[in-house]
Amino acid sequence: MTADKGIKPLVLSRLQQLHPNNATRDVNLYHGDQSLIPGHVHLVRSLGGPIFNLLIAGLCSALAIGIAPSFWSDLVASLISTNQFFGFGSFFPLPSVDGEVIWRELLRPIHERLKTKDVSPESMKKSRQPQVSQDKE
Q: Is the pLDDT reported for residue 112 higher than 50?
C-alpha cells in the first residue's frame, strides 16, 4: 500500500465490490483537491441539509394544524421534532457536521482580515500612544 492511497479508498473500493448497486456509495466522497473550489460553493453545499430539514419541519408544522389527535398527529409531531433536531443541530461547529464548514466559510473573511492586520504587541503599543504633532511653526 502506498502512502498516498490510505485506508479509506481501500475500504470504499471493497464496499463497492461487495455492494455494486448501492446508490449511496459516493454521496459524501468529493474527488480531487477541494481547496481549489471557492468558499461559497462549500457554504452552499453545507447549507443544503439544514435548510431542507427546517423546510420539512415547517411543512409538517403546517400540516399538523389540520390533523386530529391520532396516530398521524403523533407521526407528524415526531417528524417535526426530528427535522428540527437535525436542522438546528447541523449548525453546531463540530467536525463532520455541516456546521463546521458553514462557520469556517462565514468566518473566513474575518480571519483573513486579522491576518493582514499587524496585531503584534509592538504595534499594539504604538497604536495606544498618543500621536504628537511634529509641525514646526
A: yes
